[in-house]
């Protein structure tokens, strides 16, 4: 830039000197110099006018040609123009590749603007959500009218995918997941999970039907075994086999009952009931059941730091609380302390069961809520467990917007905690 300024100043000085020499030779130096400077100024203004017209025309076509400082300016703009065209072409190529690749996906991809309006979608999303080209710019919630979808879109942070019927076709089940990026833009991924949903429904129906059909014959068998065992008329030497058969029948009955409960939790509505359950009374009832199972072998204490009322289904919450308390009795050695504790803080209400058992290795904790998963199969059979207790707890918490926390160290016992959001409880004072 400095070299250009010096060059233009030199050119201006040469013109002024030439005009001065011509003026002295003709004897009219002042008009000659003025005329030379006017011609130079007119040339500068003409080049500026050409430059302004080129800019006003949207810089279409090549930049004008000139010499001097204006030629350098035109050359710089020409280079910038070429670089911009190359970058624009590169961006178009990349965008076309992204669109081609997303168009080939079986999952639907929908790009939303910061106001939730449709910006772009691939063919799969158009087919799954019945979108047409003229729908661009409209809110997505105009086309997905499921009541829970609006609140799902308004949630912040990481969210689990939402499963809902396809717009206009209840037989098709979609799974939708929202990812936020940029300045409140969003990317919605839509998957067709109809086949998986139907398979899962078939599995649930099968388990529920088989469990229900097993219930009646098990009740009959258990009744006859109890009659034979208590009548004293059983053949000599049959007392032990009858006791074992009755024990296994009762164990099978517990398994069937748990399967039926789990099936009901999975097939019913996601949100739980609206009953008001006093937590202190629920804890005392659960502690009484745990003391009955323990038969004095454990020290069971109840600590309720702040009484509250939980909103939900009383039977389901009792099942979740009792499963944790009875598991603590089953897996704790005789004489060990077991503490049932409830407290409330800014994050909500929390119910914990702390035992003094053998503890759980950290590698097993992520799978504890799976059906029939056992850390120690032999020990679970000896304790009479069905392997479904924590699965039931997980589904009860899902229906009550809660979470399960597990803190365990091998050899030092375990602490299972149920976390409930503030929306599910009210303190005794406010109630």
Helix content range: 40-55%
Proportion of beta-strand residues: 15-25%
> What CATH architecture label of the largest domain applies?
2-Layer Sandwich
The strand count comes to: 13
Features:
431 residues, elongated, 4 domains, five-stranded mixed beta sheet, alpha+beta, Beta-Lactamase, Helix Hairpins, 11 helices
Walk me through this protein's architecture.
The structure is a single chain. The chain is α+β, with helices and mostly antiparallel strands. The chain has four domains: 2-99, no CATH class; 105-192, PAS domain (Beta-Lactamase), CATH 3.30.450; 197-267, Orthogonal Bundle (Helix Hairpins), CATH 1.10.287.130; 275-427, Histidine kinase-like ATPase, C-terminal domain (Heat Shock Protein 90, 2-Layer Sandwich), CATH 3.30.565. It is built from eleven helices and 13 strands. The protein has helices at residues 2-26, 29-56, 68-103, 123-129, 147-154, 194-231, 239-267, 279-294, 314-330, 377-383, 389-399, and strands at residues 108-112, 118-121, 162-166, 169-181, 185-192, 275-278, 299-304, 308-312, 337-345, 348-354, 403-408, 414-420, 425-427. It has a five-stranded antiparallel sheet, with helices on both faces. The chain has a five-stranded mixed sheet with strand order 7-9-10-12-11, covered by helices on one side. The longest helix has 38 residues, at 194-231. It is elongated, with a radius of gyration of 40 Å.
